[in-house]
Amino acid sequence: MSLLRRREAGIALALLLVIGVTTVVQPGFLFSAGGWRDLLLTPAILVVLAVGQAVVVITRNVDLSVGSVLGLTAYLTGRLFIDAPDLPLVVVALAAVAAGTLLGLVNGAIVAFARVPALVITLGTLYVYRGVTLTWAGSDRIDAGDMPRAFLRLGTQQVLGVPVLTIVAAVVLAAVAHYLHTSRGGRQLYAIGSDPAAAALAGLPVRRRLLGAFALGGALAGLAGVMFAARYGTVSSGAGTGMELQVVGAVVVGGVAIFGGSGTVAGAALGAMLLLTINRALPVVGIPDFWQRAVVGALIIGAIALDRVLATRRSRRLAAARDADPPGGTTAVGPAAPGPDHDRTRTEEATA
Amino acid sequence: MRSHARPWWQRALLTREMLTVAILVVAWVVASATVRGFDGPLTITYLVLDIAPVLLVALPMTLIVATGEIDLSVASVVGLSSVTFGLLYQAGLGLWAALAASVLLGAVCGAVNGALVAYAGLPSLAVTIGSLALYRGLAVGLLGTTAVTGFPDSWTDGATANLSESPWPVVTLGLLALAAVFAVLLHATPFGRNVLDIGRSSEAARFSGVDVRRTLLILFVLSGAVSALAGVYYTLRYGSARGDNATGLELQVVAAVLLGGVSIFGGRGALHGVVAGVLLIGVLGSALRLEGVTVNVINIVIGTALVVSVVAPRIAGGVRVRRRASTSPRDGSAVAQRS
Amino acid sequence: MPNAAPMLRLEGVAKSFGPVAALRSGTLVVRPGSIHALVGENGAGKSTLVKIVGGVHRRDAGVVELDGTPVDFGGPAEAKAAGVAVIHQEPASFPDLTVTENIYLGREPLRRFRRIDRRAMRDGARELFRSLGVDLDPDRPAEGLSIADQQIVEIAKAISLDARVLVMDEPTAALSAVEVRRLFTVARGLRDAGRAVVFISHRLDEVADLCDTVTVMRDGAHVSTDAVADVTPDELVRRMVGRDVAELYPKVPSTPGEVALRVEGLESTGTFHDVSFEVRAGEIVGLAGLVGAGRSEIARAVFGVDRYDAGRVVVGGRVLTPGDPAAAIAAGLALVPEDRRLQGLVVESSVARNVSSVALRRRRAVLLPGAEAELARDWAGRLAVKAGALDADATTMSGGNQQKVVLAKWLATHPKVLIVDEPTRGIDVGTKAEVHRLLSGLAAQGLAVLMISSELSEVLGMADRVLVVREGRIVAELDRAAATPEAVMRAATPGASAVAEGGAA
């Protein structure tokens, strides 16, 4: 636990450092109404997506279709406003979340029942969901004029200096974090990701939990779609394209192990904030924003490398501890070196 | 003892790869019969020109997936090499030198991936999602939103020219040659055997003296170099070097490789299946386009085909797999559970 | 309570895996308040029987009754729910969760709003450990727990589930003496609380020390059940082996030649220390010790699969590059590893590819169709491998035939030194004798053999010389005459009074 906490503290520290340095260069980055608002508002959508993705990744799966789900639900939101102008805002939002849930359930059902890797399945549904949106929308675009003023105001409105969308993201984060930490189901998600074979042997409801994780991921992508429509006011059929990689990047940077079992949604949320804050900070400190993606990529690689270094150091320490107190203490079989990750996908196959 | 349970030709026909080949043949015949203009010479020309980058990148990707790893950064390497090729040409370097330098840079990009995966032991999925962003970021950073154009006609025409009077573009020869090289590498050399062994059990391969790490490094370097070659082709084919060239190509490549019957778990796969997978996507694409169907529907078709190609054998083989699982005595079960 | 009604009763239970009958007729009757030993050689069917009791496998035939009611478990969870817990030698735990979470996973105590009551859970775990008399931090992650502690966690889980039948599958194989004593105290506590304990071991001294009843199995069938007091250890061994020991270990005396393998000061932090020994051509050297003492790790390091921190390995005068199995193979070293299915073979590959995977691939640049089959046919014939076809997957074969394939694969490289790690684990007695005859014959032809085995009788029956490893160090070297079971066990067991440095090397 202490290691996990340290990991998240590290990301938080990096985030503060980025904000601090940028603010020194240009005080308006933090100390202006617009700067403060952007700092909180920009990451809100990615945070919601990252929380959902973290839950899926913790179970040793991945959902690459989130960008397409966001696009589809964002378009659905706009479409509902045009086609059914009398619907209350809440109903529209719920409809989009429900649609996202359904799309997530499709992914989850295929992964859980056909026992095929989520990477392939969600790569396929990435195409399919995007194709559906493209076919449905065509070259059509939903503009701010098509959506109610009250809805669009949510995208920029602030309550006590905090943007509404940020509040939404914070509530989602708190709720999911609470679930993962304090419910039986939440702990089982970690157990499944930690060792899928052992989870099945222990009689855990693996399929139901996987369905739940994918459904939650889909629901949050649907919510992100609604937030996207409110925030940007325009939705084209390409909304959210390529976002899946940013989301997975945020989760990995936030310390959620790509092979499951460890990490927290708080870390994933911090990872999302760090990525987007760096993006905004680069131009301020004089680096053309063309280089944003390169920095993000370097950050992702750096984060997984760091995680490996920490893990290796820990297993070294355990090995040394074995030498320190031999009799009555511990004996262990197997190599001291950490197992190569190449084998992990095979373990999944063995469980199938 | 018999060496084979069935004659070789039966075994060759009853494979997962041949299913893709068969579907390809059916698709081609149906398209020729029902889609107006599909059997025209232009179809073949454009089909080959369009699939060339996908096919090129799919060749090393086949071997990487066969080891159980993946390289998602390939399209970014295509983009980066397109940019460096353009910039070096603009800077006055000869085209051959620019090509060589770009391919070298691609190899370096692949080596970075390979070192992180093989020697640092990081998961290739995460590493190459990172380097996907990194290499694309470098490409976009170097050129911004501008493009380098004005390559000599002899080169741009060469990229699209046909073999004398035939509908086949000149690049067909290069594609065939390279595909043959990779087919031999995978199917008839110790290296290829080791690649498949790593995919089936990297532990057992290590105990047989296979240098698993070096093998993976070589594969990622190959992937980078061939992707860079595809980047140069892409640049010449469209006459323009841009930072966002070939964005999203990695998904098409992975889809084609899996459609071609390579197991995402590693250990199974054949090159002719992958070539058929690439062609199948190309044929579906051009047939649907000729029918006036938009690219969106093609995406749906590709995505569905990908899901079905993985799920169907799983469902069909489900009974068989379960039976086999319960018939294998688990003398090493404690280890198997813990690994 | 020897006359109480049986808590667990198995009668004539059978189970086959494809062509291999792992269990022909398993019979076991366990009463409450009893510790019941189940003994037999490797491959006698004990583990299969345990897996049927624990719900991992479904039986093909026979009767299983719990408290007189017939049961048929569809999975381990069902067995657990019915009150049967199996403690495996290396329990599967969730490394990322804490010890407490591992114990209560899926049935955590809840507070209001179905939230997990962490304090109650931690207190419960602490109470369980206290009642077991062990000192374990309930908040530490399961990652990095010793095997002994993992077993304790499993036992704590079983008790919190109120399991009435606890089956311990060779729990002591990897434990130190102190840990074994702790485990025995725990087991006696369970017995006195009226639970039924099944204790699997092939260490007869432990059986005599702990158990009240003993059931012997051989070749997948029940042989006998007696009170421990009524049967001598010698009689038990006779029943377990069921044949003349000399027939099983056809050791041909040989004259050692040049030093083929020399290991000098090999050192690996946390695993083994200052390991030095020699193996001469024509000699079989046994490496004995407890599971987990570091024998396999030494073999892996010598072969180059694992790295080492200091020392060197010399084969036929050449110093090997550390961590480079290819160099070791080129110098004439071969390793038949401990785990056949994970390390020895690529089980999804054909017999032909497996046999030729090292020898042929080192010689040829291009592999034409048929080349592999040719080499494989030759070697499969020499070792009498039974397989449907050379292009059949190795998965489909029995353990004994798989082991022959591994041996064929390495013999095809014409090695100077052969290291075999548990060469006969989990294979039938007939093939076992074949493997022994083969090793003996190879040594007679001048091959240097280093043999690791957990089966003492195998080491003593086959080796010219025995090296004993304890906690990562070679603590004794005994020649054939001095290598008695007592001498080896005394050297191998930590905490034993005097270290036996006996025997002229």
UniProtKB/TrEMBL annotation, chain A:
InterPro entries: ABC_transp_permease. Residues 326-336 have a biased composition (Low complexity). Residues 340-352 have a biased composition (Basic and acidic residues). One of its GO terms (cellular component) is plasma membrane. It is a multi-pass membrane protein. The keyword Transmembrane applies. GO terms for molecular function: transmembrane transporter activity. It holds the Pfam family BPD_transp_2. Keywords: Cell inner membrane, Cell membrane, Membrane, Transmembrane, Transmembrane helix, Transport. Residues 319-352 are annotated as: Disordered. It is found in: Cell membrane. Its main location: membrane. The complex is composed of two ATP-binding proteins (LsrA), two transmembrane proteins (LsrC and LsrD) and a solute-binding protein (LsrB). Part of the ABC transporter complex LsrABCD involved in autoinducer 2 (AI-2) import. Probably responsible for the translocation of the substrate across the membrane. This is Autoinducer 2 import system permease protein LsrC. It comes from Promicromonospora thailandica.
Automatic annotation (TrEMBL), chain B:
InterPro entries: ABC_transp_permease. The chain crosses the membrane at residues 47-65, 72-89, 95-121, 133-151, 171-196, 216-236, 248-266, 273-290, 296-316. The keyword Transport applies. The keyword Transport applies. It is found in: Cell membrane. Pfam families: BPD_transp_2 (PF02653). PANTHER family: ABC TRANSPORTER PERMEASE PROTEIN YPHD-RELATED-RELATED, AUTOINDUCER 2 IMPORT SYSTEM PERMEASE PROTEIN LSRD. This is Autoinducer 2 import system permease protein LsrD. It comes from Promicromonospora thailandica. The lineage of its organism: Bacteria, Bacillati, Actinomycetota, Actinomycetes, Micrococcales.
UniProtKB/TrEMBL annotation, chain C:
It is found in: Cell membrane. Residues 8-244, 240-496 form the ABC transporter domain. It holds the Pfam family ABC_tran. GO terms for molecular function: ATP binding; ATP hydrolysis activity. GO terms for cellular component: plasma membrane. It is a peripheral membrane protein. Keywords: ATP-binding, Cell membrane, Membrane, Nucleotide-binding, Repeat, Sugar transport, Translocase, Transport. It comes from the Bacteria. This is Rhamnose transport system ATP-binding protein. It comes from Promicromonospora thailandica.
